[in-house]
Design a protein that fits this description.
alpha+beta, HIT family, subunit A, five-stranded antiparallel sheet, 5 strands, globular
């Protein structure tokens, strides 16, 4: 399934150029035009799905099954010291193209151009509070 106004659907269809890394019947991977770090690659399902919330499990399964192979190829070629796998869902989280995609961002050092800062709040959540949150999420699983 394809959306005519989707940038990534147009790339999959060959209507827009891309530097293709990998393609099979379910997945398409290509170089991110922004190249946050050298080798920054996007991995997308060929079926249009907006974000993780709307992605059927079989589509996610096909996508995630290929990620280790693509990540290993990036490691073999660019020899990074690490790799971030990033997915943004909705505008507040930084999603700018509304076709589900994973960023594979090779890491070369602290000053390589990518920064992800975590603010930990472990002193604000008791084990009881964490357990209640876990039970709420478990109860919402369908």
């Amino acid at each position: 399934m394809r959306h005519d106004d989707c940038l990534f659907c147009k790339i999959i269809a060959g209507e827009l150029p891309s530097a293709k890394v990998y393609e099979d019947e379910h997945v398409f991977a290509f170089m991110d035009i922004s190249q946050v770090t050298t080798g920054h690659t996007l991995v997308i399902p060929k079926i249009h799905t907006k974000n993780i919330y709307e992605t059927p499990s079989h589509v996610a399964g096909e996508l995630f099954t290929r990620v280790p192979k693509i990540a290993q190829a990036i490691k073999d070629v660019f020899n990074p010291v690490g790799l971030n796998i990033l997915n943004n869902n909705e505008i507040l989280a930084g999603q700018s193209v509304f076709h589900f995609h994973l960023h594979l961002i090779p890491r070369y050092g602290e000053d390589d151009g990518f920064d992800s800062k975590w603010v930990t709040r472990n002193d604000q959540f008791s084990l009881e509070k964490l357990q209640q949150m876990a039970e709420n999420i478990s109860g919402a699983l369908k």
